[in-house]
User: What shape does this take?
Amino acid sequence: MTPIVELVNVWKSYDGVQALKGLNLEVWRGEIFGLLGPNGAGKTTTLKIIVGLLRMDRGLVRVNGVDISEEPYEYKRIIGYVPESVSLPDYLTVEEFLIYSGKIRGLSEGKIRERMNYFIKLFDLEGKRRSLIISLSRGMRQKVAVASALLHDPDLLILDEPFIGIDPAGQHILKELFNERVKGGKTVFISTHMLDTAERLCDRVAIIHKGQNVASGDLKNLQQISRAGENATLEEVFLKLTEEAREQLFEEEPIKRRGGFLSLFGRRGP
Amino acid sequence: MRVSIILALYRFKVKAFLGALRASKASIALLLIYSLGLLPSIFGFSLIISSAVREGGASIELYIEVLASVTSLFMFFAVLSALRGYVAFEHEQSFVFTAPITPREFLIAGIFADFTSSLIFTHPIFLLYGITVHSLSLPAPSALLMLISILTFTFMLFLLKISLSILKALYRGGLVNALISVAAILLMLPAASLLVNLPFRYSLLPYPSSFLAKILVGMVYGINDLPLNLAGLVLYFLASVLLFHIFSGKNFFPAATYMPLISPFDTSMRVQTLKLQRSISMFSKMGRFLTLSLESRSLLGFLMRKEIIRMIREGSLFTIILFYVIISFVVAATSSGQAQGPPPALFLVFFVGIYSLIIPLMLVSNWRLSDLENLWVPLTSGVDMRIIARAILYDFILLSSAVPTAIILVLSAIYSISPLMPLTIIVSTSMIGCSVNLYIMVKFLGRGRRGTPSLLVGWVSMLLSALLLSPVYILIITATYLGLEWALIGFSAVILAYSTLMARFFSRKIEKEISRVEI
Assistant: This one.
C-alpha cells in the first residue's frame, strides 16, 4: 500500500533561509497524523508545499501516489486545506463563500446545498448564514474555513494549527469529526503546537526540527527513539528529541561556520 | 519637554514608516523611477506656469482662486480627518503611551516625523518650486519668502489637524462633529465660485489658503500687498500653535483610537486587512442587492459575478463613480464660469483618457488588498487558475469601461460632441491598462519581489500602460489634426484591434503567472 502523502528529500529556502533540509515524511491512509515541531521548524512550509501554495526547491512529493510536480492540479481534488492564518473573502457572506468553495471544486448544486447546510448546522453557524464574513469572530472564521475544506468530502484533510481560536465546544466537534473521518478511511493531517491534544488525537506524529524529520511514529516508537522511558508523555519526548537535535546542530555549526573546504563535507549540506 | 526624548521618538516614527521599504530591494529602484518619471511632468508644469506668467492675459484673480481652492482642499482633508479622533498606532499604545512620555513630546515628534515621511512623495513639489522660481528669475528673498510661506501653511495644517483630533478624542459629542464638519464645508464653499458667480470668493475672504495663494501669486506678479497677507498667514499659524499648546497639554492617551501601522510601504496582510475592513463595513450594506447564487451555470460567469460583488462591497465601484463625477465637474467647470463654450473634443478625450489610466491601477490595487491572501482558496482547490485570472481581468475591463462610457455619453450629449473618439480611448485604456496593471501586480507577487510597495509597482504599471497606449494617441492626434474625420471609424477599429491584441497578450501572461503565485 502506498502512503497518501510522501515527501522524499524535500528542500525549500526563502531568501537565503533554509526552511526544509531534505525532509522525509510518510502519511498513511486512515490515520490522524500530527506534524510537530518548535517555531520555525518548517511545519507550515511543509503543508503549503503539499497543497501547492509553495514550490519546493528540490525533492519529491507524492499525494495519493501522484508526483505533484508532474501533475500540479488534479491531485488537489482529494485535498481539503485550512491554513494557519485563515484569510477569507470578507466581502462575502458565509453562505456565499461556501457556494464559491463548492463551485470552484466542481460540486453539483444539490451537493453544495446539502453539504453546506450540514456544516452550517454542525458548526452552529445558522444565525450567521447571511452575515458577511467580516463580522465573524476568529473562531467562527476558522469554522467557516473548516466547513469549506470539508465541503467536497476530501480523502485528505490538511489543517495547519486547527484548534487555535476555536472555543472548547468547537474543538470537541472538530476532534469528533476527525475521528469519524478516519473511521471512514479518510486521512487527517494536522500541524499543531498542542502536544497534549496531539498525544490524545493522533495515531502517529512526526517531530521536525530545522526542516528535518527528527523522529516519526506512534508514541511508543518515539519513546524508544528518544529513550525517554515508556511512561514519558509526548511533551517529554518532544522536548528530549528537539533538544538533542538542537545540540547536534550546535556541534555541526562551528565546522560549517569555518566555511571553505571543510563545509563541503558538512553532513547536512545540500 | 525633553529634546532627547523627542528626537528618539522622531527617529522611531520615521523608521517605522519607512521600515517596509527594506523588505524589497526593488523599492529603492522604483522610488527612483517614481522621481524620474515625474520629472517630465514637473518640467512641463513649470513651463506652463512660467509661460503663463510671461505672456500674461489670464486673470490674476483666477490664479488666486484656483490656488486657494487647491490649498483649501488640503485643509478640508486635514480638518475632516479629525472626525476619527486621535489615531495612534498599536505599537505606540503598547510601548510609548505606557512610558513616562508627555503627550506634547509625543506630538511634536509626530509632527516632524509626518513632515519627513511626507517628503518621500512630495519632494517633486519642491523640485517644481525650484524650477519655477529659477525660470521666472525671481529674486532670492522672494523665493525664500514663498518657501517659508508654504512651510508655514504646511505646519499650520499639521498643528490644526492634531488639535482638532484631540478635541474630538476628548469630547466625543455631536457638537464637536458638527463643528468640524461645518468648518470643513466652509473651507470648500468658495470653490463653487469657479463654477457659478458667487459673492464669496477666496480672494475676498480671510482664509489661510487665500493668504497663501495671494502671497504666492503676488510674489510672481509683483503685487504689493505682501505685508497684509503675510500677517494674515502668520496670525493663523500662531493661532494653530496656541491651539496645539492647549490641546497637547491634555492627556489624550486613554482617549486615542488605535490601528496597526499603516505606511504606504507596508504591504503586510494585517495592514491590508485593516484597510479593507474599513471600506467593507462602509459599502457592504449597499452592495447586498447582488448575491452569489448556486444557479449560475458557467464557472466563468459565476466567478465574474463574485468579482463584481467584491468590487461593489469593498467600494471600488463607488470610487470609480466618484472619480468620474469629479472629472465631469472639472470639465463642466472649464466650460462655464471663467471659460467660454463647450470643451474642445480633444480636451475631453485627453482629459478623460489620461485620467482613465488611474482606474485600472486602482482596481488592481484594491484586488491585491482584498483578495490576494484569499487566493489560497482557489489555489488549493484544483480549479483551473486561468479561469480565475480571466474572471478578474474581464471584470476589471468591464467596470473600468462601463462607468466612463456612461459619463462620456452624457457629456457628449450635453456638448454635442461625437462620442466615438472618447469611447475608443476609454475602451482601449481599460483593456491595455487593466491587463498591464494586473500582469505587473501578479508578476511582483513572485519570490523576492513580494515586499515591493504596491505604490511603486503601480507607478511602473502606469508608465508601461502609458507607453503602450502612445500609438493609440498618435493615431487619434493624427486623425484630428489632419481633419480625417471620415477616417475616424477606421482608426477606432485599428485601435480596438490593437488593444484587444495587447490585452490578450498580457492576459496569457497573467494566466501563466497566477497559478505560480506563492501564498
